[in-house]
């Protein structure tokens, strides 16, 4: 059964702490080893297949998506997590910019697992990570350098009809604090997106956050909940004034949406 169509998976009994710790270690070991094998074996072999540069990129993205799906399944079946996905059938449309909050280490993994041919803005440091640079480079993801070139590249990808995943926070949310969105994501949306789709992610209890090492697992398995929101037309904001004003208003709209969806109030953002 495909991850994109599965209902909530939370019926299994909670595995013992010691087993979940071992399973978590196995999960990230498999992730790391898999990333290296992709770089030195799988992607070089895929590059030998006939086809254009676009075909090679699509194959790399589809392979990465499928392996991320298997990674999530391993974490579920080994008792590390349960998950629930609402509205995944509305992800992956041409020119769609997916904007998500970022509470945990595996947010991008789950989103890419749901979309077979997605682009993604990723942290610049991951381009040199031995476990991640293979998939990142082969799939031609975009480096979050913060430069104008990055904004141009992301907007161009949307204009070409690619689906683009962006985390406006730029890094994982600090536990206990509200998400803080950088305006660059809104600027990209105004310049290139046909539609903007907010995706709210919650992890209960919190784990794999910015402040925690992978082995600091919660007392019980965690539940990963992903909810796809209603589409936003970026042009409705572009018509409200010059680019800086439109960008600020779209960014404020997105921030308020996530605050509401996460059950936070404006005092939390102070």
TrEMBL record:
GO terms for molecular function: acyltransferase activity. The keyword Transferase applies. The chain crosses the membrane at residues 17-46. The keyword Kinase does not apply. CDD domains: LPLAT_AGPAT-like. InterPro entries: Plipid/glycerol_acylTrfase. It comes from the Bacteria. SUPFAM superfamilies: Glycerol-3-phosphate (1)-acyltransferase (SSF69593). Pathway: Lipid metabolism. This is Acyltransferase. It comes from Pseudomonas solani. The lineage of its organism: Bacteria, Pseudomonadati, Pseudomonadota, Gammaproteobacteria, Pseudomonadales.
């Amino acid at each position: 059964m495909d991850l994109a169509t599965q209902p909530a998976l939370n019926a299994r009994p909670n595995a013992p702490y010691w087993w979940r710790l071992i399973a978590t270690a196995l999960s990230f070991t498999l992730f790391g080893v898999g990333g290296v094998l992709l770089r030195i074996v799988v992607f070089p072999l895929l590059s030998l297949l006939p086809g254009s540069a676009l075909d090679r990129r699509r194959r790399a993205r589809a392979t990465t998506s499928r392996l991320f799906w298997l990674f999530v399944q391993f974490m579920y079946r080994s008792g590390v997590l349960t998950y629930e996905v609402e509205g995944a059938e509305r992800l992956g449309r041409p020119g769609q910019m997916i904007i998500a909050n970022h509470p945990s280490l595996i947010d991008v993994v789950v989103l890419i697992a749901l979309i077979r041919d997605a682009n993604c803005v990723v942290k610049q440091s991951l381009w040199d990570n031995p476990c991640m640079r293979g998939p990142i480079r082969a799939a031609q993801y975009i480096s979050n350098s913060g430069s104008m070139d990055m904004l141009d590249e992301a907007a161009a990808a949307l204009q070409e009809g690619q689906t683009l995943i962006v985390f406006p926070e730029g890094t994982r949310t600090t536990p206990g604090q509200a998400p803080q969105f950088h305006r660059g994501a809104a600027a990209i949306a105004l310049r290139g997106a046909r539609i903007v789709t907010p995706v709210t992610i919650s992890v209960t209890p919190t784990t794999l956050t910015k402040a925690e090492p992978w082995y600091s697992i919660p007392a019980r398995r965690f539940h990963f909940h992903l909810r796809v929101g209603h589409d936003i037309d970026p042009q409705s904001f572009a018509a409200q004034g010059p680019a800086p004003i439109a960008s600020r208003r779209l960014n404020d709209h997105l921030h308020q949406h996530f605050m509401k969806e996460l059950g936070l109030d404006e005092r939390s953002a102070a």
